[in-house]
Design goal:
mainly beta, two-stranded antiparallel sheet, 4 strands, about 0% helix, elongated
């Protein structure tokens, strides 16, 4: 169980609420509880698409 949280700001200019979402929501879409805007939670630092161990032939 990951105890870390990700803090993101709602991109809706009329809302701008800071949300704290669980770390396991990285790479997923969440909804702002204040205005209902769908927000994509950024992935882990340096992780672009989960293909870190691609063989370098």
């Amino acid at each position: 169980m990951a105890a870390d949280t990700v803090r993101i700001m709602c991109p809706n200019l009329t809302c701008r609420k800071v949300l704290a979402v669980p770390g396991n929501a990285r790479g997923k879409t969440v909804r702002c509880k204040n205005c209902g805007t769908n927000i994509r939670v950024p992935g882990a630092s340096g992780d672009s698409s989960g293909q870190k161990s691609a063989p370098a032939a």
